[in-house]
Amino acid sequence: MALHPVLGKLVRKRVVLASASPRRQEILTNVGLRFEVVPSWFKETLEKSSFAAPYEYAVETAKQKALEVANRMHVKHLRTPDVVIGADTIVSVDEQILEKPVDKQDAYRMLSRLNGKEHSVFTGVAIIHCRSKDNQLEMEITDFYEETKVKFSELSEELLWEYIHSGEPMDKAGGYGIQALGGMLVEYVHGDFLNVVGFPLNHFCKKLAELYYPPSKHNVQHKKYDSIPSVDTFENLSDGESESSNFTEHKVASKLDSSGMDSSAAVHTSGKSSAVRTGFTVPLENQNGVSQSPSKFPSKILELMDGFRASKALFVASKLKIFDHLKDKGPMKAVDIANDIGTSVCGTERLLDACASLGLLEKTPQGYSNTDSANTFLTSDGKYSLHGYIIHSNDHLWPLFTNLESAVKEGGRQNHRAFGKKADDLFKDYYHSQEVKQRFMAAMHSIAHLTARDVATAFDLSQFKSACDLGGCTGALAHELVQVYPNLKVTVFDLPEVIANISYFQPSGQHPAPVTFVSGDFFKDNLPEADLYILSRVLHDWPDEKIHVLLSKISAVCRPGSALLVAETVLDEQKTNPSVAVLQSLSMTEGKQRSGSEYKQLLEKYGFTDVQIKITGNLLDAVLCFKKSLSL
Ligand SMILES: O=c1[nH]cc([C@@H]2O[C@H](COP(=O)(O)OP(=O)(O)OP(=O)(O)O)[C@@H](O)[C@H]2O)c(=O)[nH]1
């Protein structure tokens, strides 16, 4: 199975993972899928006894999780994704279904039941293709499940309790995490390991292959829902560039209740065979089953109108370090949080509720706690923390965007209006104010760290012995490169003011990696020698004259056969996607975002050839090119 083309089908789609599970996020991120995380609010309370087999429960729960998110995004958060992925992992032993333990006793009960025995882990997965047509949500649902058998060794009471006290069991199906300490309990695994961890990646890719490269009609089985005509719609998606707008329309009898549940599908079993493909479309209806007026407020626009409130809520919660405060703590009441951080109770409660509604916090009668994704990305000290970038967005980008109207009218940066200083003065500020410098570096570090693996592996770079990351800042990409290519020596070349502040960002507890930091100005100073030069998030920031200086210098020091790796978000040829890069342009730096063909043209102009572009599915894409050999 050719994996990449299959996942590539999702590259330009708005993909949403309807799951708070950090493991699922990691599994999908690791294969380069670009997606948003919108945890489902569907409560896992389906009546287990109404399912003939445990996997049917998992599949139905996965489906309801995904349906809830698809519907909420369409109606409430007012943006319709192209694809929503939901999953649910359960453990089945002695005809019992085990989910996540509610407390330590429950974990003990589960682990004792698994002790010394074989059990099955089922993950149900739902892939929903969505489309908004005349304000109606149309969906095609595909679901499947995967089973893995796991056997536990005979474990002593003492060991079980020690494991329970580690805290690991609490958010894991069956009360153990096979990928971490729980792996010590396991004697054997038969089947897909990642399925136990929470997402059957292999089966998922096969399912995508079925959907996007469908077999001929007579090979496809269609599941028949009681009152829903089975339909045959996925052929339209097989086109290489097809987007969700290629949906074929179908009339169906299924109804959605107000929470977005497909009531006809909520209890009955689905996908008896994991190979069965299901598909139907559902018009959005209100509680009375009456079609909503096509003239209702355009949801996409309302979402955009509201976007600034959501951003600011995230920024302020991050600034007040609410996610740090809740890290590793049980649920906390608003009043206690307010007292601890010195804010008003009523204001704090509103902010916490806003964060809960945005899926950043969980709210229960006991209080507020971090979601897994808040723990991973929003606390300030996490390995994958985006805290620095969020603070940079609040303190630097927000004031600039507040002056967007003037920026558009005048066609230039608005630093003088936003900060009372010219762009040049501000640039100096970066290097004179320790706080601003650290904040900026933390922002760059967050992004570099989260994208480094995809950039490093976009191409096979094992042929290179030395690399120089120009403007490599904290060395996040450099450290990733030496991990992936142990024979590669990487030099990070950046301004002295930057190099002086890198120590805080260096990986701890590791042997000194072959990363060297050299200070200098890439516009003025000699560049260190290397087989491979890297420009990550550099070109989009500078005007053509500066790029001319920089690329001429790199081209001059490159020997034939040496290469240049550019990491940027590559625009599509229309230059309207991905919107993250298009919106970034509104900062009105003197630089610009470029499409694939523009990068090719630019690099060829400076004597680089064989320009290859890899859309990674992450924030940064990769462009690799080689210095023309003399004979060419
Ligand atoms: O060995 C492991 N087994 C299971 C897990 C994790 O367990 C949970 C299963 O719970 P669920 O499917 O309900 O998913 P949630 O985490 O609640 O997130 P949703 O928002 O999707 O409901 C899942 O996180 C597995 O990853 C494990 O880590 N190791």
TrEMBL record:
**A molecular function (GO) term:** O-methyltransferase activity
Q: Which cofactor does it need?
A: a divalent metal cation
Q: Cross-referenced PROSITE patterns, in alphabetical order?
A: SAM_OMT_II
- CDD domains in alphabetical order: AdoMet_MTases, Maf
Q: Which domain of life is it from?
A: Eukaryota
GO biological process annotation, one example: methylation
Q: Where is the O-methyltransferase dimerisation domain?
A: 302-380
Q: Does the keyword Plastid apply?
A: no
Subunit structure of this chain's protein = Homodimer.
Extract the NCBIfam families matched here.
maf
Question: What is the designated name of this protein?
Answer: Acetylserotonin O-methyltransferase like
Q: Which organism is it from?
A: Cyanoderma ruficeps
